[in-house]
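Record 2-isopropylmalate synthase, 632 aa.
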Amino acid sequence: MASSLILSSPKPLSINPTTSRSHSLSATFSFNPARNPTFTPLFSLSSATPVKPHSKSVFCCSAKPRTRPEYIPNHIPDPNYVRVFDTTLRDGEQSPGATMTSAEKLVIARQLSRLGVDIIEAGFPASSPDDLDAVRSIAIEVGNNPIGADGHIPVICGLSRCNKRDIDAAWEAVKHAKKPRIHTFIATSEIHMQHKLRKTKEEVVQIAREMVAYARNLGCPDVEFSPEDAGRSNREFLYHILEEVIKAGATTLNIPDTVGYNLPGEFANLIADIKKNTKGIENVIISTHCQNDLGLATANTLGGVSAGARQVEVTINGIGERAGNASLEEVVLTIKCRQDEMGGVYTGINTEHIMMSSKMVQEHSGLIVQPHKAIVGANAFAHESGIHQDGMLKHKETYEIISPEDIGLFRSNEYGIVLGKLSGRHAVKTRLTELGYDISDKEFEDFFKRYKEVAEKKKRVTDEDMEALLSDEIFQPKVIWSLGEIQVTCGTLGLSTATVKLVASDGEEKIACSVGTGPVDAAYNAIDSIVQVPTVLKEYSMNSVTEGIDAIATTRVVIGGDPSITPKHTSNRETFNRTFSGSGAAMDIVVSSVRAYLSALNKMLSFVTVVKATRESSESSKTYHNTEQNSE
Ligand code: KIV
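=>
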């Protein structure tokens, strides 16, 4: 194999330290989604799982399993059923820095299907050829193949502005799904119509009516319409435009609080008023879409449900434009916990898959939730103070309204299983299955090699260690460059140096030496001199996943830099530089850092390849940079 020796000069490394993860009681929890991913009853505390039963009382989530009603676009046979419309892959991906590759979106879409969401908004196909491709792949695969034994297949939806080109692109992408949906929107508030659209009310109504009819006439049986900025729109005008789109064939009317301005009571009244005053409303589903600018997205969404909305638009971990969206886990768990107080409403979400879904979205989007995030934060089930711990030990429900098992977390110390260097394949595989990871034989073999390396050095391999290694092995982009070997010298006597050997996907090996301000900087410089693409390190953080000197270190980095990837933002049309996140895990902090950097680089390189290929091959590449709003 050819090897090359390349030397490069130092460049500064910026490090944003983050707070380390709490090691209070939270460290004793691990994921526990259903062990058998094909077993997905609604609202189940799966009997197929080895989770120890926990006592239930009136204060803990205790909703009974229900059957999901048949899907009819404009009608729900059970009036208590609330559809969950997940927009993690569309609105969620609009979060700054949350770029995901098509492959990552497909993985998340599969997980959303396993979780039991009713509708997956898979993207905005007109925004770029690669987004169209991503939505199409999801429609073909996830939109046709049930993942759970209940046979559930989600609706696959694509977003479009109210113009023919967008709608054509959305239909082109979603039409392959068994249950396709087009979601089209146009702004209806005075401020948006006047300053953004520069159109009169009459023009806006006409466009909306014609475009909904156009989408239906393409053959799409399910068309959702959103009056953007409904939360600040004139009521009478809203009733009017909604009546017109109902006549034109809309099946769902989504009411967005686009700027997160409404108060919960206000938003509930808006839904109630629309329900009361819009002719034909009984023939469609009312939906909520609440942004989180004032931190009210979940409250507003629940207000909407109480007032009669039967679809909620949410994202995993609440990611989304600016301050994000209503979070799926908060809305669903509240409905589950307070079902009786909310008039008996229920969803089809299998909550045991929530933790895994949250974890996947964190890994792929690079947006890590804060430790105190409701439901899925590292501290959500941690009890630090003595009084709380005393109460918990006496009776769990003193301080716990949700059982961790309900979202796929379990108390690992209840199992009493200790894995170490003598553990064999069977024990390790069994443990992974118990943790909810359903991986292929090849993935397991790769994982097992890493497991053995760690087990040689650590007396006890914890669930957290296993998960960190799994993230490092499985939640990774396509490998273009992988780490062969690394050697660093560092200290106070001079510049740090690193020698790095990388292996390309075709097996070619390249070696480079470099100096840097520290060992990580030196290693990154060496990698840069081999890979030779412009990058800027935007964020770097490291955490240990367990306590002690032999803990595994997980590193996250965010990089940006390739000037050929400069799309325009969907809402304000400003050019932005895409960023790519990567994560790595190892007991050696430099190795962990290098793995994270390579993971982000691989993501960027495969993204650039796909963008370039689709740009060249697709006629619609002209639309890549186009974000003109709503003009025909
Ligand atoms: O926030 C918003 O208004 C939207 C619409 C497209 C539903 O995202």
